[in-house]
Structure formats: structure tokens, C-alpha cells
Design goal:
It contains four helices and four strands. It is of the alpha+beta class and 144 residues long. Helix 3 packs across helix 4. The protein is globular. This is Hut operon positive regulatory protein.
Length: 144
């Protein structure tokens, strides 16, 4: 069964051929999906990249309710990849991440629950030196 969080996580983990198959299943069920990448030692740049993409791609409109739901989805996913220690540059960590944004129902056939937005982050985090990083994964989702 397809669900918002599952689509977000699978999208961020899959390679292009697998992702096309996932999109073919997701779009007819009412999900909108976007995937890209971001890397930085500055958490503000990661948040800004995801927020900018969400606005540019039409995932949210410029109103408080939608921006707030997106912000908290990013924050929850970010909290997951930072293991509870929200911060990068100030503790000399860098991140190279893929991210996905998904908007739609929480689960297929659950339209009476309203629209939700999810953000998944996957990639590598560690000391800003090649070979000193490890994999990370985070997911956040909120109602709009």
C-alpha cells in the first residue's frame, strides 16, 4: 500500500529507473513528488534549498499554513539526520544530501484526512573531510 512517508523515503533512496516506476504508481494516486540534492555545512542553506524548491515546483503556496507545514517537515527530517543534535557547521559537520518532497494524502484512499506534506533526507554526514562521513536518513511529515 502506498503512503506519503513511504513514497518520500523510497523516492530519496531509489535510482532513476526505480524512481520512474514509483512515480508511475504515485501520481495516479494523488501524490506530487520532487527529488533533488543539496550539500552544505550550514543548516540554513539546506532548509532554504528545500523551501525554495517546494515553492518553485508548486508544492506550497505563500501562506502561513503551508509554509509552516513544510518548515516542520524539513525540521523533523533534519532532526533525524542529525541524531537529535540540530546543527552542522557550528560542530564541524558537513552534509551531502538527496531530498524528496511529497504532497498528497497520508495513505491512498484517505482523502477525508486532507493534504499532507513530507520531506525525506538521505545522504552522508560527517567531518568535512573525504572518508570521515556516514549515511543518514530522516523523514518529516505534517498536515497542511
Amino acid at each position: 500500500m502506498m503512503s506519503l512517508g513511504k513514497i518520500a523515503v523510497l523516492s530519496v533512496l531509489q535510482t532513476e529507473p526505480e524512481e520512474v516506476k514509483l512515480l508511475d504508481q504515485s501520481l495516479p494516486s494523488g501524490y506530487k513528488v520532487y527529488k533533488s540534492k543539496v550539500g552544505s555545512m550550514d543548516s540554513a542553506k539546506i532548509f532554504a534549498a528545500i523551501e525554495t524548491a517546494a515553492k518553485r515546483e508548486g508544492f506550497i503556496s505563500s501562506n502561513y499554513r503551508e509554509e509552516h507545514a513544510l518548515y516542520h517537515s524539513i525540521l523533523e527530517a533534519y532532526h533525524g539526520i542529525c541524531r537529535g543534535n540540530a546543527g552542522l557547521g557550528n560542530v564541524l559537520r558537513s552534509a551531502g544530501l538527496l531530498y524528496s518532497i511529497v504532497r498528497g494524502p497520508r495513505t491512498v484512499g484517505c482523502a477525508d484526512d486532507g493534504e499532507w506534506i513530507a520531506v525525506a533526507l538521505y545522504g552522508y554526514m560527517g567531518a568535512p573531510m573525504k572518508g570521515f562521513e556516514h549515511e543518514v536518513l530522516g523523514l518529516g511529515m505534517n498536515p497542511i
